[in-house]
Amino acid sequence: MTYVGIDVSKATFVVAYSSAKGSETKTFKNTVKGIREFIQTISPKENHCVLEATGNYSMLLVYLLSKAGFVVSMENPLKIKNFARVMLSVVKTDEIDARLIALYGERMQPAPFKLRNDSILLLKQKRTVLRQLKKQLTANTNLEGSLKVLPFIDSKSKKVLEKTIKFLQKQIKEMEEELTSLAEIEYKKQMDLLTSIKGIGATLAAALIIATGGFTYFDNAKQLTRYLGLSPTYQQSGTSVNVKGHINRNGDAHLRSQLYIGAMASLRCNTECKACFERLRSNGKPGKVAIIAVANKLIRQAFAVVTQEKPYVDGYKSAKP
Q1: What is the mean pLDDT of residues 142-146?
Q2: What are the CA-CA distances from residue 144 to residues 149, 151, 168 (Å)?
């Protein structure tokens, strides 16, 4: 299997058919036509394509390659960046980056990327638009508040802001309803299982389904916790390095915030989460650390009910010794 390195940008992508210095590279347009031209130059049986995850710019390429039967790996850019440091790379161009990605594939042999199904892609688009609408609403609300402290307010500006805020609130409400509705239609069973956990509502359940592809991207709850950036870190070396641990903060910061809020809500009604929080607090752990631990417990509960296909029973005690 020959690894093909691909460096993707908005308008084009550069392909390195080999990692060897001075080997052939070729540039294609990042369009359907350009991707099809690239596909004609490689073979599904002989080539494994590797590229960095660059958000929406790489999704069309990954989608068409996967549909054409190619093995594709889409890696975290941080992995490629750290690999370049290990290889003592000091020059950065699109061609060199493509060869470096091909070399990364040869040395690291990354796992194939699991293509998201169409419903997950639609849910992700709705979630992205919803988040941007909320950011715009926050910005306009803050602007309206800042104008109110002025000696006098321009009536036209005030009217425009009020209309904009009402429009954004309406759009946000509609998008939230559509997102939840689509999640309940496509993943009704998982939504029912997840919302059976006290502390996880429809919004958080839908967010977990989107992030995990319907709980198909991870083998266990520990992998999901690491992906969401809630894994504790610790640095210790000899007698001079002993850094206090914190969460790794990788992955989706917005979903991490939702889980934090869900963890706080679960303290009122989820027996296991409440017991976990009280135990950690009695052992002297800070409140935020205990909440993070509760968020991890919520993830484990979510993973358990979905994989076992059984609703959550609050306060359940196993019959096993």
Answers
A1: 95
A2: 9, 14, 14
Cα distance between the two ends of the chain: 50
CATH code given to domain 2-108? 3.30.420.40
| 217 or 165: which leads in pLDDT | 165
Is 133:166 a contact under the CB 8 Å cutoff? Answer: no
For residue 80, the model assigns a pLDDT of 94
Q: Mean pLDDT over residues 253-258, rounded?
A: 91
pTM of the model: 0.78
Tokens found for residue 303 = 């993973």
241 has pLDDT over 90: no
- Alpha-carbon gap, residue 303 to 220, rounded angstroms: 7
Write down the domain spans for the chain.
Answer: 2-108, 118-186, 202-308
Predicted confidence (pLDDT) at residue 100 exceeds the cutoff of 70: yes
pLDDT, residue 281, reads 95
Rounded to an integer, what distance in angstroms lies between the CA atom of residue 208 and that of residue 307?
A: 14
Edge-to-edge strands, sheet with 25-29: 25-29, 12-16, 2-8, 47-52, 71-75
Computed on alpha carbons and rounded to an integer, the radius of gyration of the chain in Å comes to: 24
